[in-house]
């Protein structure tokens, strides 16, 4: 299945789920041995990784942006139009920053850790 691309169906089925823990971002020259990041992206300056805060602390990484990880449970198509705009606009209007990572099946939102409950409330309002 290639995922849903109808915006109304996507919004109705978002089902935001808060993952346990606190996650941070760090830039590293290579992924540390034995670490499985939640997300990675290769940039000119290094590899950006998202890992749980305890891992970052243990590895003494220069971590930033303490965040909560929210998964939108709806199977969204990578070609869908409007989903990111809908939830990011709602979060922005509430003054909540959001970093989005799209997986092959779901969108993953990283919001300030201290704002996680409020972010979930905002997302629930988007669903209606």
From TrEMBL:
Gene3D superfamilies: VC0802-like. Residues 2-65 form the DUF2241 domain. Residues 66-124 form the CASTOR ACT domain. It comes from the Bacteria. Coiled coil: none annotated. This is ACT domain-containing protein. It comes from Demequina zhanjiangensis.
């Amino acid at each position: 299945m290639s995922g849903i691309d109808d915006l109304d169906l996507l919004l109705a089925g978002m089902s935001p789920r808060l993952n346990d823990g606190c996650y941070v971002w760090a830039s590293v020259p290579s992924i540390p041995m034995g670490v499985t990041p939640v997300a990675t992206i290769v940039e000119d300056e290094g590899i950006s990784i998202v890992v749980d805060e305890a891992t970052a602390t243990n590895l003494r990484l220069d971590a930033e942006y303490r965040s909560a990880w929210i998964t939108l449970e709806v199977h969204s198509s990578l070609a869908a139009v409007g989903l990111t705009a809908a939830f990011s606009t709602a979060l922005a209007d509430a003054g909540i920053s959001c970093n989005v990572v799209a997986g092959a099946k779901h969108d993953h939102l990283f919001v300030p850790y201290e704002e996680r409950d409020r972010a979930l409330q905002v997302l629930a309002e988007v669903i209606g």
